[in-house]
Amino acid sequence: MRIVGGDFSGRRFNPPSGIPARPTTDVAKEGLFNTIQNMIAIEGIKTCDLFGGTGSISYELASRGAAELVLIERDQPSINFIKKTAKELGIEDKMQIIRGDVFKFMKQNKEQYNFIFAGPPYALANIDDLPLFVFEYNMLAPGGIFVLEHTPRNDYQQHPHFTKMKNYGTTIFTFFTQPVS
């Protein structure tokens, strides 16, 4: 895996085997960040990476200048890898790693973020709750973006905050936005 853009562009990292994550492919990640950068200025924003996995999305955000990176992950070996990689990149002071269940975090969270990314396991039974909870719990700052990675079997085009969808084969990114008041 590699960082596809920004200050750390081209840096490679190799997660240990056994981490229960499905990393976003480099091609899909490059497309995702091309779209994001046309929607929001990443420099200085506050982000939240639900289902952090290997930390790949947060490294990309840091590489492009995000100021605060909150990452939620429940698997300890994954967290150990993320901490190690954040230290190697020199971004550990920007990153807050929370070990726990994403849905419990969402219910207890009182912060707002400019950008939220969720790359849950594709077989997650309650994946459809993610966009509902992001808006119900007021997690997005005005003008903020939420991106949900999912398979073609899920369709969120009827969601009131749906903005666009990008298709990369079996990977779909659906974008939702919080209107500016």
Write the layout of secondary structure elements.
Elements: H1 26-37, E1 46-50, H2 56-63, E2 68-73, H3 76-89, E3 95-99, H4 102-108, E4 113-118, H5 129-136, E5 140-150, E6 162-168, E7 171-177
Parallel strand pairs: 1-2, 1-4, 2-3, 4-5
Antiparallel strand pairs: 5-7, 6-7
- Class based on secondary structure composition and strand pairing: alpha/beta
Distance from first to last alpha carbon: 39 Å
Query: How many helical stretches?
Result: 5
| Main β-sheet, spatial strand arrangement | 3-2-1-4-5-7-6
Q: Which spans of ≥5 residues are poorly predicted at pLDDT below 50?
A: none
Rounded mean pLDDT score? 94
Radius of gyration: 15 Å
Helix proportion range: 25-40%
How many strands, which pairing sense, and closed or not: the largest β-sheet?
7 strands, mixed
Order of helices and strands: HEHEHEHEHEEE
Net shape: globular
Task: Explain the overall architecture.
This protein is of the alpha/beta class and 181 residues long. It has helices at residues 26-37, 56-63, 76-89, 102-108, 129-136, and strands at residues 46-50, 68-73, 95-99, 113-118, 140-150, 162-168, 171-177. It has a seven-stranded mixed β-sheet with strand order 3-2-1-4-5-7-6, sandwiched between helices. The longest helix has 14 residues, at 76-89. The model has no long low-confidence stretch (mean pLDDT 94).
